[in-house]
Amino acid sequence: MEAIAAAALNSCEQFNSQDLSCTVWACAVLQLMDTPLLDAISAPSMPKIYQADPQSLSNMAWADAPLAWCHEPLLAVLSSAAMAKLNELILQDLTITLWAFAKLLVHDWPLIDSLSAKSLVLSSDFAPQVISNMSWSMARLMIDNAPLLAALSSEALPKRDDFYEQEIANTAWALATMLVVDMPLLDALSAESIAKSG
């Protein structure tokens, strides 16, 4: 691993936006917290981030979170680039980016508001994993967005049979953390949890 990290460190200035994104993603997957490599990647990557496709943007945001690597200048550029490409972001990109900023406890309100608004437009496509991750992210950042919460609840009820146990737990935790008393949804999640455990 050290040899690979050293080789990447020596050539990271020549990386394009996808190379940078994939390298940070690989570090996260391998749990390789190589701060010199990550810091070296961040400097040349900042101007290139604006050339990245939406998936590379969300991958880079995602990769920072499990490493707990909160490089504020890089996150600011990722935020700016994501807002510039908001119309190109699909629901998965929106959810992953919001989750990453929540995991790092970064309260970038312009980004959060933009991601939330775009997610609301796509709410009919919410799958259980999206509902769970978005609810968790909202609770972690204490996002007060009643229309988005209502959309999450509305989409969760008819899809409750498709929730895995972890998705049920995350969604219920999020509602409790945000002090949201949505009895139809809480009752449905409770019944689904009991059915799945028995």
Output the radius of gyration.
18 Å
Determine the N-to-C terminus distance: 44 Å
Largest sheet: none
Count of beta strands:
0
Description:
This protein has helices at 2-11, 17-29, 35-49, 54-64, 72-84, 91-103, 109-121, 128-141, 146-159, 165-177, 183-197. The protein is mostly helical and 198 residues long. It is built from eleven helices and no strands.
How would you summarize the topology of this molecule?
Blueprint: H1 2-11, H2 17-29, H3 35-49, H4 54-64, H5 72-84, H6 91-103, H7 109-121, H8 128-141, H9 146-159, H10 165-177, H11 183-197
Helix pairs in contact: 1-3, 2-4, 3-5, 4-5, 4-6, 5-7, 6-7, 6-8, 8-9, 8-10, 9-11, 10-11
Q: What features would you highlight for this structure?
A:
mainly alpha, 0% strand, 198 residues
Summarize the structure.
By secondary structure, the chain is mostly helical.
